[in-house]
Amino acid sequence: MQWLQIDSLIHLIASASYPFPSVLQALSAPSFVFPAEGMPGSRYLPGSSVMDHVEIEGESLALRLMHAPSDYCATLQPHSGTQANQMVYHAVLKPQDRVVALNPKNGGHISHTVLIGRANKVHYFGLDQNSLPDYVQLEILANQVKPRLIIVGGSSLPRQIDFRRCGEIAQQCGAYLHGDISHTATFIAGKLHASPFPHCDFLTFNTVKNLRGPNGGVLMFRRDHKAVIAQAIFPTSQGGANETNMLGKFAVFSEWQTHDINAYAASIVAAAQIMGEELKSAGISLVTNGTDSHILLIDLRTTSQTGADVERRLEHIGVLVNRNLVPYDPRSPLETSGIRIGTANLAILNYEEADLKSLARLIANVILNRSTDTDITKKLLEKYNRATSWHGV
């Protein structure tokens, strides 16, 4: 089946990375045979003592990886990053409480509005002239509406978040601060981005983005929120835990005890910056004029292409990117005026600089309707799948 032919595609989708082999092994284990409803040490069914160890040790490894202070806790229970977000909402929000978040049309995540908007009013802050989060606007808005919760982070922000500034704003208006770091947890762990501690009350992320884990969420929080988080997990947000995914998360956090996440994070950013400079030299416009993460957000509004057009044309020659809204995009989410590129998988496969540039030029040629050497894709796949197949690195 085509969907199983992973080695036949260059994977540049920013929201997923190739997992460690140990994660794949964990996902194949029948850990779900013993249901683990409830929290470690307080299960509703017998036989899950092994999962108590998996959760408790996995939480400790996750906190260590993120350099969390001792007054923070973690849980591996969220089924996904969005589920982790929902647990925060259920823990601290009452009906009619106000929320401030970045508009999904400008890089925020859809879970920051749809799940909350049924019971709470969401007020949006925007971007400044450089397409960066507008912290001045955030401060003015937060002091006007006095939200219960401020959410920072998103799905297509190439630059890091100023958590210190956001924390100061949250303190001014008496709000909780929730950092959604699904796309940036790796760079925080690798000390390339500023730490969200102790500024955020809650942190959520999914280990599939670029941490090389399964598609499952993690929630970190101040210790004094432990009781309300436990109730928000079960029975408020979800039923039983996904034991298989928790074992996979345990595996990935165990892997990062022996792998150099600093070097890995730096290699991802370096790959993105190399490709970004090559794209710009070819006349391609980048939102924020570059990146300090794995994300390159290409603005197609100066071309005749839509994001959907470019996505289809690149997939046809074996390169996976995704169409994506750009700031103040006049097009719909199904069409878009941009595409998003992620470089985690290129770093995992150890792409050389010359090959990163070659791939960037291929993408630029497709966007600009220039003559394209489609053999480039085949050559790159043969070179890197032969040298370091993703499921063996």
Overview of this structure, please?
It is a single chain. By secondary structure, the protein is of the alpha/beta class. The protein has 2 domains: 21-255, Type I PLP-dependent aspartate aminotransferase-like (Major domain) (Aspartate Aminotransferase, domain 2); 263-392, Aspartate Aminotransferase, domain 1. It has 14 helices and 15 strands. The protein has a 7-stranded mixed sheet, sandwiched between helices. A hairpin with a 2-residue loop joins strand 2 (38-39) and strand 3 (42-43). Helix 10 (261-281) packs across helix 13. The protein is globular. It starts with 9 loop residues before the first strand and ends in a 6-residue tail after the last helix. The model has no long low-confidence stretch (mean pLDDT 93).
Question: What's the SSE pattern?
Answer: EHEEHEHEHEHEHEHEEHHHEEHEEEHHH
Number of domains: 2
**Would you state the CATH class of the largest domain?**
Alpha Beta
Q: Mean of the pLDDT scores?
A: 93
- For this structure, the CATH topology of the largest domain is Aspartate Aminotransferase, domain 2
Instruction: Find the count of extended strands (DSSP E, 2+ residues).
Output: 15
User: What is the quaternary state of this protein?
Assistant: single chain
**What Rg, in angstroms, do the CA atoms define?**
21 Å
Shape: globular
Low-confidence stretches: none
Number of alpha- plus pi-helical segments: 14
Structural class: alpha/beta
Give, in spatial order, the strands making up the sheet with the most strands: 4-10-9-8-7-5-6
Main pleated sheet: 7 strands, mixed
Strand content: 5-15%
Please report the distance between the alpha carbons of the first and last residues: 24 Å
| Helix-residue proportion | 25-40%
CATH homologous superfamily classification of the largest domain:
Type I PLP-dependent aspartate aminotransferase-like (Major domain)
Please identify, by name, the CATH architecture of the largest domain. Answer: 3-Layer(aba) Sandwich
